[in-house]
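B., you asked whether I could sanity-check this one before it goes into the benchmark set. Here's the sequence:
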Amino acid sequence: MYYNKKTYKWLYDHLHSKYYDLLMKQCYLPFGGEIKCRKILLEHIEFHQHEIILDMCCGTGGTTFIIAEKADTDSEIIGIDISTGQLNKARKKNIYKNVLFTEGNVSHTKFTDNFFHKVFISFALHEMKREERLSVLSEAKRILLNNGKIIINEIDKPSSLTIRLFTWLWFYYWLPLNPETPTRKGMLKYGITDEVEESGFKNILKFNYFKEIFQTVIAGKKHKEENHT
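And here's what the prediction gave me:
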């Protein structure tokens, strides 16, 4: 099952946004709690002064606020999401003066070319079909500066069958109508690092966490001349 964009937005606006934060707290319990886990997944990210940072598919701001805590106070951080309900939750929790939330389609944002120093995508690509993932990655590349970085936090496929069984149970992949099941399988089949490279990024690094349950992928944007070599 795969929800179209209109249905997906309605579900997150009217249903998921009401219990999403509580669900996230439960999901991250085995990993030291949500805040601790999100911080660990960003431990290899270097932040600098005067950066403009985008958090794609920001939801209720779980990763956005960790970015704000780690980034320099003079940096500008924008969270973008398609769900009005999720964004309303994020705005209510926002205590940072340099964080702004805006509604929009991450496949076709209205940001100008070469605008951001960093673009984050956290636990969203596994909800998308391959063509949508590639579209989002392409959009991230377009709006990144030539020396900018894309940072992706995602689930991974543990090599241990026992750990894979745990994730299957813990993240509700056993539910017959779980819409993430086919898209998650597709993402893991093609591989985040391969799709990132396919989308025109270079110097790709991958870090695994918590017995390979999670992965963080960091990559740089190729210059135009590099795309023709």
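One thing to flag: The chain has one domain: 5-219. Otherwise nothing jumped out at me.
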